[in-house]
């Protein structure tokens, strides 16, 4: 855990940069240009400056205040991680709360400037924030990445290789998915479609990666036309053989940094489909005003939610394998308890993960184990750990 002294120094450095740019408040959301829930280290600014490691939260820094807005899932963790840093825990009831926006409106004065990197702020969130601040004469700047100047040790973008998701696990060939997408684009009157959400891109292109822990996705943007498609991804992440295979499907691979410049160069008078809930303010701002924006849910978001017979079969097989792993874990747990072994949360995590790892086609857990076992085995409230509950005698165990 980062020490309070280090965190205080980082906040001080951030304030120096804020003063240089005439910024009264800096907002650091838990987000990236793809609006992902789980972020690569490059976009973990809120964590780096505050020391709070929860997956959700918002950090606001002013000249004389710093606070993290977090919901009840993280209060105990945040209190521990923020202790001594001078950063206040601002408790909210829900991760969707706008309490931080209300705080800014109430605590800033007319003429103040709030800075947030528009490249990582959702379009709808940016519009709401801008409107709320404007009512009090406060201006929102989205063209300034303040944290980049105050974070010299910032990690680069992940470089893990992208690989193909093949049959029998791919739900349909790429050509079939693109045909579906273009039919929907035509129905909506869109000549182009922009995608930034990494799960939609992974599904549409039948590709997978390892840029985010516990999620087989990779950082990319995509621009799809009626007879072309460009995938913007980090240099070297797609090898020559895979690039050639994609080319046979009409897909061009381009550098990740070329994404927004390409979006800004769409032909005047053309139309582009974007999902306003799945695109950032910075991305939407790159679209030329002469291009018509059609706002609609990404067609891939709905298509990938509709499972075909093969996918349902694979799902069932995965659950059978996981059920077998749980049975193996339960057998170990009963034997260990009967032998009087000390059973800790960490040991439970290790054993249940090891049991799953021994099953065929295991890749990784779907998320890090969340454990909070703070009771004795007998005569205590039902303990829960790793998705499992035990009875008061500590003998029978059932999956949640």
Which key phrases capture this entry?
400 residues; alpha/beta; Creatine Amidinohydrolase, Chain A, domain 1; 6-stranded mixed beta sheet; flat; disordered C terminus
Describe the structure.
This protein is α/β, with parallel strands linked by helices. It is flat and about 60 Å long. Helix content is 37%, strand content 16%. It folds into three domains: 4-150, Creatinase/prolidase N-terminal domain (Creatine Amidinohydrolase, Chain A, domain 1, 3-Layer(aba) Sandwich), CATH 3.40.350.10; 163-303, 3-Layer(aba) Sandwich (Creatine Amidinohydrolase, Chain A, domain 1), CATH 3.40.350; 309-399, no CATH class. It has a six-stranded mixed sheet with strand order 4-3-2-1-5-6, sandwiched between helices. The chain has helices at residues 4-20, 45-50, 75-82, 99-107, 123-134, 146-150, 174-188, 198-205, 240-248, 259-264, 281-285, 299-303, 309-338, 345-357, and strands at residues 25-28, 58-62, 66-71, 88-92, 113-115, 139-141, 163-164, 192-195, 207-208, 220-225, 229-233, 251-255, 271-274, 292-295, 384-385, 388-390, 397-399. It contains 14 helices and 17 strands.
């Amino acid at each position: 855990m980062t020490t309070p002294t280090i965190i205080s120094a980082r906040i001080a450095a951030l304030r120096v940069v804020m003063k240089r740019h005439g910024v009264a408040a800096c907002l650091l959301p838990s987000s990236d240009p793809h609006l992902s829930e789980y972020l690569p280290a490059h976009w973990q600014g809120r964590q780096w400056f505050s020391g709070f490691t929860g997956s959700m939260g918002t950090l606001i820094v002013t000249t004389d205040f710093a606070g993290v807005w977090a919901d009840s899932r993280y209060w105990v963790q945040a209190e521990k991680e923020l202790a001594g840093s001078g950063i206040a825990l601002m408790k909210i009831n829900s991760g969707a709360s706008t309490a931080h926006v209300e705080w800014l409106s109430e605590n800033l004065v007319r003429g103040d400037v709030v800075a947030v990197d528009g490249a990582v702020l959702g379009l709808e969130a940016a519009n709401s924030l801008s409107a709320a601040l404007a009512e009090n004469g406060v201006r929102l700047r989205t063209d300034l990445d303040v944290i980049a100047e105050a974070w010299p040790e910032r990690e680069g973008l992940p470089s893990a290789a992208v690989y193909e998701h093949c049959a029998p696990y791919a739900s349909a060939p790429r050509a079939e998915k693109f045909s579906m997408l273009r039919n929907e684009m035509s129905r909506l009157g869109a000549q182009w479609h922009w995608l930034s959400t990494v799960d939609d891109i992974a599904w549409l292109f039948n590709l997978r990666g390892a840029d985010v822990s516990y999620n087989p996705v990779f950082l990319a943007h995509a621009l799809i036309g009626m007879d072309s498609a460009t995938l913007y991804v980090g240099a070297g992440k797609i090898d020559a053989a895979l690039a050639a295979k994609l080319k046979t499907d009409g897909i061009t691979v381009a550098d990740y940094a070329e994404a927004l410049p390409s979006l800004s160069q769409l032909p005047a008078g053309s139309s582009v489909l974007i999902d306003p809930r799945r695109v950032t303010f910075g991305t939407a701002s790159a679209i030329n005003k002469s291009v018509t924006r059609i706002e609609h849910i990404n067609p891939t978001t709905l298509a990938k939610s509709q499972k075909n017979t093969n996918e349902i079969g694979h799902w069932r097989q995965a659950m059978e394998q996981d059920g077998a792993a749980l049975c193996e874990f339960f057998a170990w747990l009963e034997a260990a308890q009967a032998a009087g072994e000390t059973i800790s949360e960490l040991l439970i995590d290790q054993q249940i993960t090891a049991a799953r790892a021994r099953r065929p086609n295991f890749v990784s857990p779907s998320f890090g184990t969340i454990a909070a076992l703070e009771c004795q085995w007998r005569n205590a409230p039902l303990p829960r750990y790793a998705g499992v509950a035990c009875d008061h005698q500590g003998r029978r165990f059932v999956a949640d």
